[in-house]
Amino acid sequence: MKLRANLVIGGTLFALAVLVGVLAPWLAHTDPVLDANLMNAEEPPSWTWWFGTDDQGRDIYSRVVYGARVSLTVGIVSQLINSVIGVALGLSAGYWGGWWDDVVNALTNVMLAIPSLIFALAIMAVLGPGLTSLLIALGLTNWSFTCRIARASALSLRNQGYVQAATVLGYGDLRIMMTQLLPNMLGPIVVIGTLGMGSAVLSEAALSFLGLGVRPPFPSWGSMLSDARDQITTAPWLSVFPGLAIFLTVLGLNLLGDGLRDILDPHSRSRRT
Amino acid sequence: MTGAPLIEVEDLRIDLDDGERRVAAAEGISFRIDRGETFGLVGESGCGKSITALALIGLLRPPLSIGAGMIRFDGREIQHLSAAAQRDLRGNRIAMIFQEPMTALNPVSPVGRQIAEMFVLHKGNSWREAHQLAVEALASVRVPAPERRVNDYPHQLSGGMRQRVMIAIALACGPDLLIADEPTTALDVTVQAEIIELMRNLCAERGTAILMISHDLGLVANVCRRVAVMYAGRIVEERGSADIFRTPSHPYTQGLVDSLPRLGSRAALGRSRLKEIAGVVPAITNFPDGCRFNPRCAHATDICRSVAPTADLLEAGGLVRCHHHA
């Protein structure tokens, strides 16, 4: 079997990011928040300070390592919320149709019409900054694509013989949705979810950059970028490394999503055989 | 056991409502099936046989609906049952198997689980018990190595095996009535015979009545004790299946019987043309007045073109809707 480059590279990058986040206390050289020492301020990358230090003398490497926790938590949790909302609405709308479908469609159209980052900004403004509000804001604003996909899949699946057979065999609506429809639409949902995680990581960075994300001094990649923007000419390593971390994580997630689509999409599968 | 029929359909009319007007897709449908009996419904595509079956299990969906008439299953009128009570009948007391064993099984679920689900759903078994029962159910439909096959996915099984699994699912809860809608149309002829044999034996063992729906008069007459022939939304003749071949009474049935190729006949040997019924089935929105078969009928007279025939009882048993029946 041919090795799928995008799947392997994407999976490796994502796994690496997760591993770094999980193992942060062991990987970091110093405490990302407490070990500030003005004697070491603005050191360029070296053997001692792998990624250099910031203007308070904190180790950038350690902060990037800990920052993975925030970015990945936000990426994974908020996308899970999005997927659950999107699947619940889209699946039920596609299966039941009627007025409920109209309501969900209208809601989806509204969501698609509002730029999701602006909407998330508004929610953050109400809830105040912090990790929990970040999860809620990003979890509530990005479900429309999942919803569309789930609805379209449900529409086509509900006419499948086995779904009708299940009706005839006395399955209730909920049981049909859970056992017949959901497992059969999981492929595209997982793909969309993976890609959505990438964009959630970016949104977290953007919101943190705007000062609405995780509260300083705790590091997140976005807030590190934000802090670094004044020194981009004098101390470029402050922005390069968190930027690289975001870039590699999102790239990994997107490649992973592509790779999964290649595997899970029945069309590309039949092309292969 | 009382003499009450298992299912009784009286003067059923099924409406098709396309938003502008309402037409009867089937009307005047009456028949009864006793416990353990085998009954066949034969007709061309679009004659209303499949929607009649859907009406029996309470699954007509818009634009189709029951316009009039009554369906009584085991003494209870199906239309007046709650949705939950109807659902409880389906799969449990009335089961159905479909034409396409390729698509009627969930592709992402092992077949054993799909059988087991019936026991969990209708009999309240635990998954562990249900799994064991599923193995037994697979064994009862003569699937070899059932304890291995339960874990197979549908795509790992052949068409015949899948139809066996469908039968196992349908008969899992020991239903009183099995509706088989063209159960073997998608299968090879040799497999077809095996499946029919299996279905008939299992139902006979368990006292399950069969309502078999098909366009194949020969197949239905082979399985069923009584046969009803439908044409353009009406039952035109209902007879014992031996009689219907020997002395078809309605011109349409005669046409059907004559159009069957017989081994060794002149037509099968290529010496004469196989008989056909002239003309085409009328569209549902454009049924002719009177007897609906009159434009294609060789014996049609004025009365056929104006008055719909009523069901006449035949001396030999059965009934027919024709002004000029033999």
Residue runs with pLDDT of under 50 for 5 or more positions of chain A: 269-273
Strand content of chain A: under 5%
CATH architecture of chain A: Orthogonal Bundle
Number of helices of chain B: 11
Q: Strand sequence of the main sheet of chain B, in spatial order?
A: 6-7-8-3-9-10-12-11
Rg of chain A is: 22 Å
Q: Strand portion of chain B, in percent?
A: 15-25%
How many runs of DSSP E, i.e. beta strands of chain B?
12
* Major β-sheet annotation of chain A: none
> What level of helicity do the residues of chain B show?
25-40%
The CATH superfamily of chain A is known as MetI-like
Number of domain modules of chain A: 1
Structural class of chain A: mainly alpha
| Beginning-to-end CA distance, first to last residue of chain B | 37 Å
CATH class of chain A: Mainly Alpha
* Largest sheet geometry of chain B: 8 strands, mixed
Helix content of chain A: over 70%
The outline of chain A comes out as elongated
Whole-number mean pLDDT of chain A: 84
- Globular, elongated, flat, extended or rod-shaped: what is the shape of chain B? globular
Summarize the structure.
The complex is a heterodimer of chains A (273) and B (326). With 273 residues, chain A is mainly alpha-helical.
Structure report:
The complex is a heterodimer of chains A (273) and B (326). Chain A has helices at 5-22, 24-27, 60-96, 98-113, 116-127, 131-140, 144-157, 161-168, 173-209, 221-228, 237-264, 266-272. Mean pLDDT of chain A is 84; it is low at 269-273. In chain A, helix 10 runs antiparallel to helix 11 (237-264). By secondary structure, chain A is mainly α. Chain A has twelve helices and no strands. Chain A has a single domain (5-24, 58-272), classed as MetI-like fold (Orthogonal Bundle), CATH 1.10.3720.10. Chain B is of the alpha/beta class. Chain B has a domain at 225-326. Chain B has helices at residues 49-56, 83-89, 111-123, 127-140, 146-149, 159-171, 189-206, 217-223, 241-246, 251-258, 302-306; strands at residues 7-17, 22-33, 38-42, 64-73, 76-77, 94-97, 177-181, 209-214, 226-231, 234-240, 312-313, 319-320. An eight-stranded mixed sheet of chain B has the order 6-7-8-3-9-10-12-11, sandwiched between helices. A four-stranded antiparallel sheet of chain B has the order 2-1-4-5, covered by helices on one side. Chain B is globular, with a radius of gyration of 21 Å. The model of chain B has no long low-confidence stretch (mean pLDDT 85). Chain B: Residues 7-257 form the ABC transporter domain. Chain B: It is found in: Cell inner membrane.
